Amino acid sequence: MIDLSDHDSPYTAIDAKLQSVAEAAPVKPAWYEGLVRLRPQSTEEERLEVYRAVRNSGLLPEEAGFFLVSRQIDEIATRDADQDLQPYEERMEQIEAECRFAEGEIWPEGAAPEGYEKLRQEYHRRVEDFGWQSIGFPHAEGPHVWIEGVFRGHEVSLQVLTYAPEDEEPGMKLDMSGRKRQRPP
Question: How many other C-beta atoms are found inside a 10 Å radius of the C-beta of residue 51?
Fold first, then answer.
């Protein structure tokens, strides 16, 4: 039986529905054991493993399986980005507190304390936005991953599509780095 004690978790309803799907099947699916072992404290990766098995079983409509897995991947990506940027945020907040800086206030150009501007630039040099669009809305590109940020002083916007566009061959590559690449022998 699935633990339904954590009513605030979005996983409560998802896991309960998956349990009812499994119980309605003529034979318990292979992923059922993994599902009933999931708890509110289960890792996102453990949950992703079970949800991939659910999707691959074919017991759900293709779109539902796709959403289940893509949502879990988004949870992992968001968690990892938050963890990577947390040290920058904590250090900037520490400097702001030391300077008695009000929340939402902005230092005038050149007035920030020593080291703060460099720290802020390092924070923003990283990825500014990223995500997974599972349905391709509002544009018709279909499912894709996107990354926006600054790399070596240049603004970057990258979109990796799940499927090749109709007018392009699958696997097409475009190298804009200007570096010469050696081909393997």
Answer: 26
Burial class of 75 by CB neighbour count within 10 A (0 to 12, 13 to 18, 19+): middle
The pTM assigned to this predicted structure is 0.54
pLDDT tens, position by position, 152-161 = 667 777 777 7
3-state secondary structure of 53: helix
Question: Where are the domains positioned within the chain?
Answer: 126-185
The neighbour count for residue 22, using CB atoms within 10 Å, is 20
- Would the pLDDT of 74 be above 70? yes
Cα–Cα distances (Å) from 82 to 15, 42, 95, in that order, read 26, 19, 20
Evaluate whether 127 touches 149 at the Cβ level (below 8 Å).
Answer: yes
| Locus of tokens 């499912």 | 143
Amino acid (1-letter code) at residue 43: T
Share of the chain above pLDDT 70, in %: 73
- Cβ distance 114 to 46 under 8 Å? no
